[in-house]
Amino acid sequence: MSLADSRPRQCGPARGRPRSEAVEQAIIEGVMQLLEEGVSLAELSIERIARTAGVGKATIYRRWSGKEELFVDVMRAAEPKDPELPGTSMRDDLVVLLEALRRRGLVSRSSAILHNVHAQMKSSPKIWAAYHASVITPRRNIGLEVLRRGQRNGELRADVDVELVNDLFVGPMLTRSLLRPDADLPEGLAEQIVDTVLEGLRPVSSPDR
Questions:
Q1: Angle 171-173-179 from CA coordinates, rounded to 5°
Q2: Distance separating alpha carbons of residues 196 and 122, to the nearest angstrom
Q3: How far apart, in whole angstroms, are the C-alpha atoms of residue 80 and residue 106?
Q4: Terminal Cα distance for the chain, rounded
Q5: For helices 21-36 and 46-53, what crossing angle results, to 10°?
Q6: CA distance 74 to 78
Q7: Count of CB atoms within 10 A of residue 187's CB?
Q8: What integer pLDDT is reported at residue 8 of this predicted model?
Q9: Burial of 59 per CB tally in 10 Å (0-12, 13-18, 19+)
Q10: pLDDT band, residue 190 (cuts 50/70/90)
């Protein structure tokens, strides 16, 4: 699977003059084309991206402040879309969040280019910092809020550290996705992780026990 094949057909920041989805898509496609041709992040320039996309540099700068911000949106477009949470229970929301993480792991495994780009991104402090602030931190905050709501609703023990608990849920999926590329990421893994961890974290009086 190529990087272009792995992405949903949407992305782009909401800033500047009214957006043209076609223009933004052409710019995103231009970056992806260059990456698939083997151009490294260090070699990417706004001028080269503009030439590939068939737009002017000013068109790109009206939408993104620089290469780092543009690249974050390229990566967001290449990954599966963040899910809508059902909101029915803490357990259901956690399963949906982990399932999204599992799917991102599968996409990264199936696209050698995307896997390579992730590795390159971590070697670029500016791009990694932008990606972390715009993508990773908001995703983590959603998980933390789900856990805090679970504490308020009595679904999670009130005496546990939600930062640590979030790591307990996310850790196994990240380990299989990033550290153990030979490990399976089967359907149902999200439910298995959530239910295993929750077994020890529910309040003693929880009716689920």
A1: 85
A2: 31
A3: 10
A4: 44
A5: 110
A6: 6
A7: 8
A8: 42
A9: middle
A10: very high
pLDDT computed for residue 208 by the predictor: 54
Q: Are 100 and 114 in contact (CB under 8 A)?
A: no
> Is 70:49 a contact under the CB 8 Å cutoff?
yes
pLDDT at 38: 87
Q: Cβ(85)–Cβ(96) under 8 Å?
A: yes
Tell me phi and psi for residue 178, to 5 degrees.
Answer: -110, -40
Render pLDDT for 21-45 as a digit per residue (tens, 0 to 9): 899 999 999 999 998 888 888 888 9
For position 21, what pLDDT does the model report? 86
Instruction: Give the amino acid at 4.
Output: A
Q: Residue 102 in contact with residue 80, Cβ under 8 Å?
A: no
Residue-wise pLDDT tens digits, 108-126:
887 777 777 887 888 888 8
Instruction: Report d(CA 169, CA 143) in Å as an integer.
Output: 9
User: What token pair was written down for 197?
Assistant: 């961890």
DSSP per-residue letters across 44-92: --HHHHHHHHTS-HHHHHTT-SSHHHHHHHHHHHHSPPPPPP--S-HHH
